[in-house]
Design a protein that fits this description.
Elements: H1 5-31, H2 37-64, H3 69-93, H4 101-122
Helix pairs in contact: 1-2, 1-4, 2-3, 3-4
């Protein structure tokens, strides 16, 4: 079975986006005093939950409504911060070590989004 090259590129984009997000946000979480393997697993799962959905919506917007790409992307990035903050806060209430969950979500997302912008500008 042969996979369409366009679909393959989209899947590669999803994979690279998630891997780069994890490569940036997990060390940032460590700097922000997130401790323990379980906490890092939770942080990875939070990103596995949010990243593909954001990337899917951005890709859809890029292909169907190119003029709306940046407003949609920025709005999604802003919305993902409180969403991830709520997930980290729920984990904290369950006894996991997430000091300042909303600040963690903010710094992690600003770091990965900023790095992504720089990386795309260098391509």
């Amino acid at each position: 079975m042969r996979i369409d090259p366009g679909i393959l590129n989209i899947l590669k984009g999803f994979g690279m986006s998630l891997l780069l997000t994890l490569a940036i946000e997990l060390p940032v979480a460590a700097v922000m005093k997130t401790r323990g393997w379980t906490e890092f697993l939770i942080a990875a799962l939070v990103n596995i939950l949010t990243n593909p959905l954001v990337v899917l919506i951005v890709y859809f917007t890029m292909f169907r409504f190119p003029a709306w790409r940046w407003p949609v992307e920025i709005a999604l990035e802003i919305l993902v911060i409180p969403a991830e903050g709520l997930l980290y806060r729920a984990a904290k209430k369950s006894g996991y070590s997430f000091p300042k969950p909303f600040l963690l979500a903010l710094v992690c997302n600003l770091s990965s989004y900023g790095f992504g912008l720089i990386l795309n500008a260098l391509r």
